[in-house]
Amino acid sequence: HQSKLDFFCKLGYGKQDICKVLENLGQEALEDDVLKELIRMGSKPQALESQPQPSSLKLVARGSCSASPGLKWLGDDDSDSSDCLRPIVIDGSNVAMSHGNKEVFSCWGIQLAVDWFRERGHTYIKVFVPLWRKEPPRQDSPIADQHILEELEKQSILVYTPSRKVKGKRVICYDDRYIVKVAYEKDGVIVSNDHYRDLQNENPEWKWFIEQRLLMYSFVSNRFMPPDDPLGRHGPTLNNFLSKKPVLPEPKWQPCPYGKKCTYGNKCKFYHPERLHQVQLSVADELRAKIEVPLNLGEEEEQ
């Protein structure tokens, strides 16, 4: 009885459980039977009981935001994503006349442009239109969907530039200056197909700003479409152009067409994956290095 008690105690089982099983099975019970009965009773070795239980891991779907509040993904920011987008200043007259094929002041074109930037998440959108466009349309200056101007004004998106009549003549303030000035102060983007050359000559700072922040566009079947490369083929993408924090693309190296047979050495402008961990020497330097090694060895032997 004592030998069986000591044996199962070494295994880590408690004395009370062992004695209880031996009383039920008798002193002549085999060790395997005792072990089975201990397991059936739910008794566990103390070594296993003292081990910390693994925490229950919770599977989270990829892209889910149900992570624990203490954790924060790398690159996450408490600020709203709209804070990373540049303010938008729209030349209302230019957009409306462009949508109306330069014949009609089409307010629907302004709405299409505003909706396009809204869908992207831009929160600061301003449209500048001369005040006299609120007047009833005339035969020489037709206006289509004029009610859209009132709706955009109520939403604090549309701003009328001042104009008045003096002795029957209309005095109009230069709305282009409003557009460039507000966009410059807000560090935003000007939406227009106008180049504002007179304003570029007026202010050198505005000249740089207009060259770098002018977003041109086209209307294709009532669809507002800015170019994917606003500053040309080698300039930033449209997403980077409209963002305060542009994301630079990873450099893509073109593999060398000659591969391992390339004889340009470190002067080769192409990518060589086999040379990542090698010191890239020119062919002449490699030959010199190979010649110098046996010469140096021969000199040491003579000494």
UniProtKB/TrEMBL annotation:
Residues covered by the C3H1-type domain: 250-275
Required cofactor names: Mg(2+)
GO cellular component, one term: nucleus
GO molecular function: hydrolase activity; mRNA binding; RNA endonuclease activity; zinc ion binding
InterPro entries: Rege-1_UBA-like (IPR040546), RNase_Zc3h12_NYN (IPR021869), ZC3H12/N4BP1_RNase_Reg (IPR051101), Znf_CCCH (IPR000571)
Signal peptide: none
Matches recorded under Pfam families: RNase_Zc3h12a, UBA_6
Keywords: Endonuclease, Hydrolase, Magnesium, Metal-binding, Nuclease, Zinc, Zinc-finger
Renumbered zinc finger spans (C3H1-type): 250-275
UniProt record similarity statement: Belongs to the ZC3H12 family.
Listed name of the protein: Ribonuclease ZC3H12D
Species assigned in the record: Pterocles gutturalis
